[in-house]
């Protein structure tokens, strides 16, 4: 009898209308974020600096600074309602089913302990195995992330590694307990292009082997194209467009996405990195009441300054939050404002 592989259609992660605010701030730093990630899928979260990418990941990990408060919304991770977990339950999930590679390279590595000790500790915290077995698992994961002379490296300290090797160890640390969701916040930004390509290839291989879902935070459209199947574009605490990689690259609809991609000549040339859009993200105290992008949008009309656009379906899961989609008709007419 042949076994039919079980395909779990339920999303690994579902964020719905998540709102987060810093104490004393007049506006939400996350203003109604909704995202879904399925098993084995990578969702890239892109947007300019300060748009709320890291705050989204910290909210998910239960690691928001104490000055930030979740106002409303749902965070469902597998069978766990993340908003109802006790600190103890959250700590049990982190580094186990839910893992993160932090933006700051040394965040997850302790400079005073050897790699072997740190990796073994991470195993023993979540799996009931002896120190000896934990060390074997540590060795296997170092080999899996292609650390040369892995056995010897178990005795090394983090500062004895190159940047690329340290990043591999961070990936090993994040994956050692087979997480169902891996959050990677700019995991390759600090690395040179060759090492970056190797690390991305490694993440792709490991994801294919394990079916881990990945939330990849990045500024780099080259990284998006390399690893992601889905993309969510954030601006000033909101998701303004989301869809498949194909839809977002071939048919970006939100003026902000179009600007980032450099697809409109006046907004910059197409290149690997996100393009620069004239102007800056509004400060919280000057956040527009209507569309948050209105102060920088070449297509803004009076309605945009008064009303908030909601995400509109454009077919096949592609959505954009703009009153003027589809934009082709305005661009064809040479129209802007
Ligand atoms: N501890 C804090 N107190 C007050 N505001 C904060 C704090 N941490 C972050 N912010 C604000 O929250 C917003 C979102 O920050 P976040 O770190 O999520 O941005 P990001 O999209 O990850 O940017 P980058 O690409 O630079 O990493 C920013 O405007 C930032 O100023
Ligand atoms: S709603 Fe208006 S201001 Fe906002 S992106 Fe669309 S056209 Fe621009
Ligand atoms: Mg960040």
From TrEMBL:
Highest taxon, organism lineage: Bacteria
Catalytic reaction annotation: a dipeptide(out) + ATP + H2O = a dipeptide(in) + ADP + phosphate + H(+)
Family per similarity comment: Belongs to the ABC transporter superfamily.
Name used for this protein in its record: ABC-type dipeptide transporter
Keyword field: ATP-binding, Cell membrane, Membrane, Nucleotide-binding, Transport
GO cellular component terms given for this protein: plasma membrane
CDD domains: ABC_NikE_OppD_transporters
InterPro entries membership: AAA+_ATPase, ABC_Ni/Peptide_Import, ABC_transporter-like_ATP-bd, ABC_transporter-like_CS, Oligopep_ABC_C, P-loop_NTPase
Domain ABC transporter: 13-261
SUPFAM superfamilies for this protein: P-loop containing nucleoside triphosphate hydrolases
Membrane topology: Peripheral membrane protein
EC number(s) given by UniProt: 7.4.2.9
Main location: membrane
GO biological process: peptide transport; transmembrane transport
Subcellular location: Cell inner membrane
GO molecular function, one term: ATP hydrolysis activity
Gene3D superfamilies in the cross-refs: P-loop containing nucleotide triphosphate hydrolases
């Amino acid at each position: 009898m042949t076994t039919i592989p079980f395909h779990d259609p339920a999303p690994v992660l579902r964020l719905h209308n998540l709102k987060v605010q810093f104490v004393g701030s007049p506006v939400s730093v996350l203003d109604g974020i909704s995202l879904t990630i399925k098993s084995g899928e990578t969702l890239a979260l892109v947007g300019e600096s300060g748009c709320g990418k890291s705050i989204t990941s910290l909210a998910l990990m239960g690691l928001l600074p104490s000055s930030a408060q979740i106002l409303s919304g749902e965070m469902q991770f597998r069978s766990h309602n993340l908003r109802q977990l006790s600190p103890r339950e959250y700590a049990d999930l982190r580094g186990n089913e839910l893992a993160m590679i932090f933006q700051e390279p040394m965040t997850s590595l302790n400079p005073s302990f050897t790699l072997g000790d740190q990796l073994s500790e991470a195993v023993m915290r979540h799996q009931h195995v002896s120190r000896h077995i934990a060390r074997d698992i540590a060795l296997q994961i170092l080999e899996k992330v292609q650390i040369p002379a892995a056995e010897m490296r178990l005795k090394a300290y983090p500062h004895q590694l190159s940047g690329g090797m340290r990043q591999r160890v961070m990936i090993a640390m994040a994956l050692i307990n087979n997480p169902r969701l891996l959050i990677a916040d700019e995991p390759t930004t600090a690395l040179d292009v060759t090492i970056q390509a190797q690390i991305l290839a490694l993440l792709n291989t490991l994801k294919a082997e394990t079916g881990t879902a990945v939330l990849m935070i990045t500024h780099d459209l080259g990284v998006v194209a390399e690893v992601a199947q889905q993309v969510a574009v954030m601006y000033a605490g909101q998701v303004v467009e989301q869809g498949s990689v194909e839809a977002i690259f071939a048919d970006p609809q939100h003026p902000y996405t179009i600007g980032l991609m450099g697809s409109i000549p006046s907004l910059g040339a197409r290149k690997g990195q996100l393009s620069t859009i004239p102007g800056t993200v509004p400060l919280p105290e000057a956040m527009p009441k209507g569309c948050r992008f209105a102060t920088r949008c070449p297509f803004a009309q009076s309605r945009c300054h008064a009303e908030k656009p909601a995400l509109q379906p454009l077919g096949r899961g592609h959505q954009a939050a703009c009153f003027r989609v589809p934009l082709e008709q305005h661009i064809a007419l040479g129209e802007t404002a």
